[in-house]
Structure formats: structure tokens, C-alpha cells
Amino acid sequence: MDVVVVGCGVVGASIAYELSRVSGLRVRVLEKDEPALGSTAAALGVLMGVVSHKVKGKNWRLRLASMRRYESLIPELEELTGRRILYNRNGILMLCFDEEELGRKQHLAEVRKSQGFELEIIGLDNFKKRFPQVCCEGVLGAVFSPDDRQVDPVGLTAALVDGAQRNGAVFEFGVGVEGFDFNAEKARVEVRIRGGIIGADWVVIAAGLGSFGLQNQVEIKPVLGQGLLLRLPQPLADNCEPVITGNDVHIVPVGGGDYWVGATVEFTDVADDGLLDEVLRQAVQFCPQLEGGEIVRKWSGLRPRPEGRPAPVIEALSGYKNVLLATGHYRNGVLLAPATALAIRQMIAPEVV
Predict the structure, then answer these.
(1) Residue 1 and residue 200: Cα distance in Å, rounded?
(2) Which of 30, 33, 80, 125 is deepest in the core (most CB within 10 A)?
(3) Contact at 8 Å (CB) between 196 and 28?
(4) pLDDT of 324 higher than 80
(5) How far apart are CA 112 and CA 51, in angstroms?
């Protein structure tokens, strides 16, 4: 069967890679730009699974599937491609600033224990000893999640593309999709591109914000996020560093004395420098050693948020049993990419385990 995947961010690349592993599928990826230029490029890759408040339902099942797949996917891709993927296995440290929040995390820890995961509630005295790089002012405690991870979204996407190509998938960049039609006589989808038509048995729309222009089933709105790379003369800590997060501000160690700091939630497509300055100010409050660090670069990106329904959207397009939507992941595109790919593979090739 011929499968066309539209879009090559981390979600589209994940889908292409999983499908490329299925015998008998010819996978073709169409991307109007270069890979990982949209929301993927702006993401910090913080994989909040166990420490998230989701404990049941579809979203938790997707998170669980992704967490499990990541543990095998990263070494699988590194062996196949020879690429090294930045994958932080040192967990996530979430700071708590009020008793109610700490109480919710204590309850969450009990739930996670019943699910087979560890969440460690850390009191203030122990916290100071274990994480001296973090300022305790205003902090009542913390929760440490050793099972959560962080990954470089752009590096991961490049490895997924490379791996899929090695498995026979074809990628065409600079090719925009203008629309598609169902050919009843051939029982195939005809994908319209500039200068031609591509026939396919299946089409997967994974173009993020660009998905809205190819369907009218789901309204997708942009939500802007910002981040920056901060360089210090030496790391914040001598030992293995977790991701530090609090009040929706993330401090992500990426090697040596380099740290990614983000992210904002802005319902606009124009970045507000003041909001990013506030994020950095809070990060410095958490880790005073960040003050005076060199800002190497700043970036922003738009994330696809579905209107009036939960994220993400993984389903057939109405009226097309062989056109699938895999979009609207909002702030969890990197986290849920592996699970999304597995779900799409199950729809297209259900006989493959």
C-alpha cells in the first residue's frame, strides 16, 4: 500500500518511521519547508508523563505508550543511524509553592505507585541537601520523577527522518499539498501538489497548524511559545542534572554549562519580549547561578491547539475512511509523537503488532 504523510515535524517524522518498519507499506512524506521548522523547533522536549496530572483516559494512555516507546526508540534510532540523540534520563524535578499543590502531588504519588511508577515527595530539608543549585525561597517542597525524560526535538526528528529513509521511506521537501480528492473508481486518494497528483491508499495529515488548511473538521489555533539558550561557565551542579520546572517555567540542561529556558503561552503570533524576560527572571529566582549567563540565542514558535476539543486529534477525516488526522498536539507534540505514530500504524496496519 502507498501511504502519504503530510508534514515533517516530530509527529510526521515519527509516523513515517513507524510506518517504514511495516513490510509492504511504501511511505512518502511531503513537507512544504524543511523538517522540524515549525512548532518542533520551538519545543524544549520536556516529556512530562508520570509527573503530569493525567491519571486515566485517552491522554494518559497516550502518555504511557509514548514513555514506553521512547525507552526503546532512542537506542533503536541511534544504532540504526549512528546518530547520538540528546536524551536526558535524569528525571524531572517539579517545585511546589503552596500546600494545596504539594497535597495534590502527594495524592498523585499514591496513584502512580499503584500504576508502577515512582514519584518522590521531597521535604524542604532534604531538598536543600540534594539540590543545592535551587533557591528554596518560596518553595515548600518538590516532587521528583525519575521516570520522566527530556529529548532534543530537532535532533530526534533528524534521526527519525534518517531512520525512515534507511527503511525505504521517501521524503520530499519544498513540496506543499494543495488538497486531495477521493477517486471512487480506484478507491484511492489523489493528493494534489503543484504540478501534479500523487495517488495513495492512505493519507495522514500531520502538518500541525498547516493541517487546518487541508480539512474543516477541526479548527486549529496558534499558541506561541518562547525559549532561550543560556550559557554558563560551568554547570549548575556537579552530578547528573534533572530538568527543573516550576510555575510552568522549565530549566533544561543540554550539556556543559548550556541550558534551555522556557516556555511562554501566548495567544498571539507575535512574540512578546517582556514575557520571555519574565520567564528568565523566574528561572533566575529558582537557580540564582543563571544570573549573568550569556544569552546565546532566543527563539519562538507556534503550537497547534484544537478549538473546542481536547488535544491531540488522532482520527479519520469525516467522509474519508483512508485520510487520517494526526494533529493539534498543542504543547505535547514531542511527548506524544511516538504514541501518535503507533496509533496511526494500528489504523493502517492493524495486523502488525
Answers:
(1) 8
(2) 30
(3) no
(4) yes
(5) 9
Distances (CA, A) of 71 to 75, 157, 200: 7, 16, 32
C-alpha cell at 301: 514558535
Identify the pLDDT of residue 239.
Answer: 85
Whether residue 24 has pLDDT greater than 90? yes
- Grid cell at residue 62: 497516550
User: Three-state SS for 181?
Assistant: strand
What is d(CA 242, CA 262) in angstroms, rounded to the nearest whole number?
Answer: 15
Cβ partners under 8 Å of residue 68, min gap 6 = none
pTM above 0.85, yes or no: yes
Q: Give per-residue burial for 184-215: e unless 16+ CB within 10 Å, then b.
A: eeeebbebebeeeebebbbbbbbbbbbbbebb
**Distance of alpha carbon 139 from alpha carbon 142, whole angstroms:** 8
Residues in the chain: 353
Interatomic CA distance for residues 156 and 12, integer angstroms = 12
